[in-house]
Amino acid sequence: MLLRYGILIDLKKMEQRREDHEESDEELLQRALGAPEGDLRAFEQLVLKYQTRIVADCRFMTRDDASADDLAQETFVKAFFGLRSFEGRSSFRHWLQRIKVHHCLNHIKKEQGQKWVSIEEESAEEPERLQVAPAVYEEFEASDSRERIANVLESLPATLRIPLVMRDMDELSYAEIARSLDIGLSAAKMRIKRAREEFRLRYQNTAGAAKSQSRSA
User: CA dist 84 to 2, 17, 34, 103, Å?
Assistant: First the structure.
């Protein structure tokens, strides 16, 4: 149930009302903008379409399971009140992801009482590894490896996990990530490169361990 600032969205009822034909984001946006006051049906469909991904992203960014649902709900509330400012220069999904990113970063800063990253880069003591694209977690929503992927993401340090999620799940540009995290463009690229390498290494290690356990069972 979503209740913020007088907006009430029952997510369970929304699931029951899903139609066989799914409207595009553009169609739903037009209906939401043209709907009379109190008619949230079009916006509810947008929430239903993206809620699972947004909740998961909030969890990965903050590593705070207890707050993930609330952060996702607050993201949708911000989107609802900002609909008329959406200019369509990007997709609705990309716009929504940017709202989520900024909201989660503010949450992290508030919880820590300070900026989550320092201006200086982390020490580069880790050995160099061949960069491998992290395509494995693109299958997250449909994969039976979902729990392992989530565990690997959550095991990464914040300085690697957050920019990785922003780039490869939220699909933000390097420039947007650098601005959001208040770091240089080269630093953003380096952190994402290192995060991809670390993710691949840890995922391969957990996959190998899982295979060994299944053979010994």
Answer: 21, 26, 10, 19
